Amino acid sequence: FVNKLDRLGADFYRVVKQTQDVLGANPLVMVLPIGEEDEFVGVVDLLTRKAWVWDDTGLPENFEIQDVPADMVDKVEEYREMLLETALEQDDDLFEAYLEEGTEPSMEDIKRCIRKGTRTMDFFPTYCGSAFKNKGVQNILDAVVDYLPSPTDVDPQPLTDEEGEANGEYAIVSADETFKALAFKITDDRFGTLTFVRIYSGTLKKGDTILNAATGKTERVGRMCEMQADDRNELTSAQAGDIIAIVGMKSGVQTGHTLCDPKAPIILEAMVFPKPVISISVKPKDKGSTEKMGLAIGKMVAEDPTFKVETDIDSGETILSGMGELHLDIKVDILKRTYGVELEVGKPQVAYRETITSAIEDSYTHKKQSGGSGQFGKIDYRIKPGEPGSGFVFSSVVVGGNVPKEFFPAIEKGFKGMMENGVLAGFPVLDVEIELYDGGFHAVDSSAVAFELAARGAFRQSIPKAGAQLIEPIMKVDVFTPDDHVGDVIGDLNRRRGMIGGQDAGGSGVRIKADVPLS
Description:
By secondary structure, the chain is of the alpha+beta class. The protein is built from ten helices and 33 strands. A hairpin with a 4-residue loop joins strand 3 and strand 4.
């Protein structure tokens, strides 16, 4: 859905092209905009060749269905032909009849082909409008019903073991299977905490006891409901494929937790959330707000897994971390406006990280003797940069008994523990692979503790040798500016160490793309 077509610089056709060039997607244009920027009034439905035109009240029901504007007829026919050719490729017989005989299939067949291509992700139905002014939203809601797959249309959700590795089993979409569900959203309103749940298998009834696989706690389901915006429809049961909200869960459930039958515990494939890139410090302006702030932040953390909170040990300040300045600005505004907490907010601190740039082989010996049994552990290892996003990877190719296998976990623990504090500025270290290939031990003095200390010493020794460097978050910036201000904008981006990626002239100004350090 290409939104905000009523805004300055909006260009539907440019965005469609960007989804192809930047995202590598295959957009299937379903509607065309009528008017641009502040003259945007509606859309033309390509399938029906009808124009949906809204008035200026902003009310979603205030629209008329009209004939296509005369100046858009040719463009509508051009895009409609492209739509049909792309959609009908999903059915060889319909496609052949359309190309060779000019026979246009029924609307039912066309929609069936669009639904099939959407399910297989061969293309993506693309709509446009202005959500704020309720223009074009109706079309996208109809498309959700017509084209998005039902739970039975897609592959079943894989199950995993406690380490998050797929175990080859699946949550079959059937009301007759054992209960399996995923908590995907948590909100707090005036009626209490709502846990939004998608049921993948089985049936859930009011009064059933369910297990939170992440916490190991069981809980009896009191109230559950079907949500329609802020309206609730109370339910007595729900089954595979349903999305429901359970009211007032107390098992410590968080976003991404698996809920299941206590007699058949399982874990669904985990949700992966990005790590925060920026932090701010906050503190209440008065002591009376301290407890209120703590309770409010606790609720917000439960609702948003990308929002983190911790206490600075040295200063005692509360540190909020998120995905960007806007993300944190919104959280602070919620604390003030919704929870009534008056805050003092510190300057944003960028979440720098450290990594390495080259591969090396190294050796480290930990040896300590101070009367009685000593400590001895020798490790020979290779260290190299890992794949982006891989984090910490440890492996061993030790042959023979130079380092007994029972010490491998201690060595891994030692290396992994050092990843939290880098050698340059104490920031967490990212994407490092370490391979243990040899070493040595002493029959009396070697122990798990000795090898863990050896690994910690090895980390401090080798990371600088492997080209340790500081890395920082880079934001993709897209600035639209009138022609007269292009030079000023580029100058400002350069002062912020930005890398200009390109300029596109169009509409009433110029769009500048750049990569800019968050700091």
